[in-house]
Amino acid sequence: MAVGILGNKAPACRGFARTAVAVRAQDMLAVQGNLGNGQRMPHTFKPHIIDMLKEPLGLPEKLKTLEPVHADGRGYGMICNCSKELYPDELAALLKKLFRCTVVRYTDAGVPVKRIAFCSGGGGKLYADAFKLGCDAYVSGDFKHDQFVYANNMGISVYDCGHFHTEDIVIPYITKRLSEMFPEVRIEQAEADVDPVNYI
Q1: Residues β-bridged to residue 186
Q2: Are 85 and 114 spatial neighbours (Cβ–Cβ below 8 Å)?
Q3: CA gap 139, 121 in Å, rounded
Q4: Residue 145's CB: how many other CB atoms inside 10 A?
Q5: CA 123 to CA 141: how far, in whole Å?
Q6: Residue range 29-50, pLDDT digits in tens
Q7: What pTM was estimated for this model as a whole?
Q8: Phi then psi for 140, rounded to 5 degrees?
Q9: Which segment, 10-19, 21-30, 75-84, 106-115, is predicted with the most confidence on average?
Q10: Exposed (0-12), middle (13-18) or buried (19+): which is 99, by Cβ within 10 Å?
Q11: pLDDT of residue 181
């Protein structure tokens, strides 16, 4: 049986037979027509992320796109009004649990979070967009020091849950979908699919 090795970043496949294939989440665009409805990856995986956050945050079904890049409104990130009001420190603890982060770096704007924006990976630069769209909090990865400072001055709480952790949450979902699409192939999540950053 052929083996598909799936990971957030390209996993090493040394020692595997020729039937083994290494696949990065970012390289899945070629099969998007089968994974969902032919839309680009950030939009296709949005329902999975929403499902994960829906109950803890009380998310509604309909969300707004943070950064539209297509005429029909598709794009990157999402914005929603939460039915559950959380204080910044409560949201930080919840995000750490949901994303299985080692740490969550965040700013506390001192106001309850009612409207939240999220963009996986290195979306730290979109904090100003989230603020302009009336968000109390923005969740992403790869925030720079000056972005924390500016966000704090603006009065929006921002949460850096890590580039890896905010992307890796879709790997089990992709693994499941690929297994359904290609039952003749054993799809596995790579053991090497771990955060490359160490913490002390």
Answers
A1: 3
A2: yes
A3: 10
A4: 7
A5: 6
A6: 334 333 433 333 344 455 566 6
A7: 0.76
A8: -165, -150
A9: 106-115
A10: buried
A11: 87
Q: Are 105 and 113 in contact (CB under 8 A)?
A: no
Residue with tokens 């290195």: 122
pLDDT of residue 50: 65
Question: Which of 70, 24, 78, 19 lies closest to 54 in space, CA to CA?
Answer: 78
In terms of phi and psi (left: phi > 0; alpha: psi -120 to 50; beta: otherwise), the region of 187 is beta
Residue 16 CA to residue 5 CA, distance in Å, equals 10
Helix 88-99 × helix 46-57 angle, to 10°:
130
Please check whether residue 108 is in contact with residue 144, taking contact to mean a CB–CB distance below 8 angstroms.
Answer: no
